[in-house]
Design brief:
- The protein is mainly alpha-helical and about 300 residues long.
- It has a single domain, classed as MetI-like (MetI-like fold).
- About 70% of the residues lie in helices and about 0% in strands.
- The chain is built from 14 helices and no strands.
- Helix 4 crosses helix 5 and helix 5 packs antiparallel against helix 6.
- It is flat.
- The two termini are about 60 Å apart.
Length: about 300
């Protein structure tokens, strides 16, 4: 009885509590702005400073490639009185063995190398999407036959194929792009096939079939758009590989030949003059290294931005 009385004496008073009222307007207020998937990707990408700096450098290279040769068109102009001249006021990056301005040739080489990289990977993009999409969507025997063809092509080293094509055909930009696209689409085709296989049983695909949508509309209107994230990342990450392949082949004398300029043949000549004329090597090597780094860092940032799990 004594314990019960003690507890009753400590009952809380009403004044010790505060009544909480419900604010209807405040409860219905949206505290976070709604956004689409694309807006979320852009916002996440903007927060990645490294990726944005890399994107800015890539845009700068594209502007140089487009407008630079218009401003400095004389990449073949020779000045035999000023051969192997060190960088200075007259020639910011010096001259080569024929007196040609290194900066002008580097700008021209930027256009050639970037064009080859983007053109080759764009062709690979279309071939890979069509081939992998058809294989994954149709499935069955068609898928098995198409994948066996891919496995046969994968067994052939890509470098060997490129060297063979450049040996048989006339060397040039078109031949180099063609050699890069013979087997360059295989990786993307396998990626697209895997994405389509994972998506083709989803509810929206079944609903589209019930509504009478054609196979073409389902593939191009539903499956491929929902697999666009990995496709874009693969495309972005493949461009530096194509540029590097061009540079390597031109360095070996199998790619772009002089008097045309590219990063590869400029590296080749710079290496032959090393270390007597350091500027002939470090100018194209530095720009090539920065371009490769920028493409890879931007690709990493884009991959994180397209992944919903990485966005906050």
């Amino acid at each position: 009885m004594a314990i019960t009385a003690a507890v009753n004496d400590k009952k809380p008073f009403v004044k010790d509590f505060t009544r909480v009222t419900r604010d209807i307007e405040a409860s219905q207020k949206i505290h976070r702005e709604s956004m689409t998937y694309l807006q979320g990707v852009v916002r996440t990408l903007k927060r990645n400073k490294v990726a944005m700096i890399s994107l800015g450098f890539i845009v700068f290279l594209l502007l140089v490639a487009i407008f630079g040769p218009m401003i400095f068109p004389d990449y073949e102009k020779q000045d035999l009185l000023h051969t192997l001249q060190k960088p200075g006021a007259g020639h910011i990056l010096g001259t080569d063995e024929l007196g040609r301005d290194v900066l002008t040739r580097l700008i021209r080489g930027t256009r050639v190398s970037l064009f080859i990289g983007f053109a080759a990977e764009t062709i690979n993009l279309f071939i890979g999407i069509i081939y992998g999409g058809i294989a994954g969507f149709i499935g069955g025997k068609v898928d098995n036959i198409m994948m066996r063809i891919v496995e046969v092509l994968m067994s052939i080293p890509q470098t060997l194929v490129m060297i063979l094509m450049l040996t048989i055909l006339k060397r040039g930009v078109v031949t180099l792009i063609f050699s890069l696209t013979i087997t360059g689409w295989i990786g993307l085709a396998r990626l697209v096939r895997g994405q389509v296989l994972a998506l083709r049983e989803n509810e929206y695909v079944v609903a589209a079939k019930v509504l009478g949508a054609s196979k073409k509309d389902i593939l191009l209107g539903h499956l491929i758009p929902n697999a666009v994230g990995p496709i874009i990342v693969n495309y972005t990450m493949s461009i530096p590989g194509a540029i590097g392949a061009e540079a390597g082949l031109s360095y070996l004398g199998l790619g772009i030949s002089v008097p045309e300029a590219s990063w590869g043949n400029m590296l080749q000549f710079g290496a032959s003059q090393f270390p007597a004329s350091l500027w002939l090597f470090f100018a194209p090597a530095g720009l090539f290294a920065l371009a490769m780094l920028a493409f890879n860092l931007f690709g990493d940032g884009l991959r994180d931005a397209l992944d919903p799990k990485m966005r906050k």
